[in-house]
Write a structure and sequence with these properties.
7 strands, flat, seven-stranded antiparallel beta sheet, mainly beta, 6% helix
């Protein structure tokens, strides 16, 4: 049996179970609003679609949706969205004296070194990543 501890009955409107669902469980108390779950500053938050495989080592692939909050403070090690090296980038930032280094998690993408007077603009901190679950192909079955 599925352990329902940790599930928010208030949010779901019912306790999750296994087996055949009761017809009464088809009525949720309210609709799911992802804004309530992932947005802390509505005016500074937006979503983007990942277009490269530069962060595949972090399980972020092309087509995944990312929530970006421009009001969050950047600290070293944070996953950010920035304009650097002539394009928008999703990278993990390393803050050093007078320089920031943007690291991809794919070996084909070298680090980008951003100097204080260079072509760099911070757009926000990535706070959530949404992606579809893995589905095997016909060849894998």
């Amino acid at each position: 049996m599925l352990d329902s501890r940790g599930w928010d009955e208030q949010f779901l409107g019912f306790q999750p179970t296994t087996g055949f669902a009761s017809p009464a469980n088809q009525d949720f108390k309210r609709a799911c609003d992802l804004n309530e779950l992932v947005v802390t500053n509505r005016d500074a938050t937006y979503y983007v679609e990942m277009t490269t495989d530069s962060m595949v080592g972090e399980r972020i692939r092309a087509g995944d949706r990312l929530i970006v909050d421009a009001s969050r403070k950047v600290v070293s090690g944070t996953l950010i969205m920035a304009w650097a090296d002539g394009g928008y980038r999703i990278r993990r930032i390393q803050l050093l004296d007078h320089i920031s280094v943007l690291h991809a998690s794919h070996p084909d993408y070298p680090p980008i070194y951003c100097h204080e007077d260079g072509d760099f603009q911070f757009f926000g901190v990535v706070t959530f990543v949404f992606f579809p679950p893995y589905q095997p192909t016909q060849d894998e079955l």
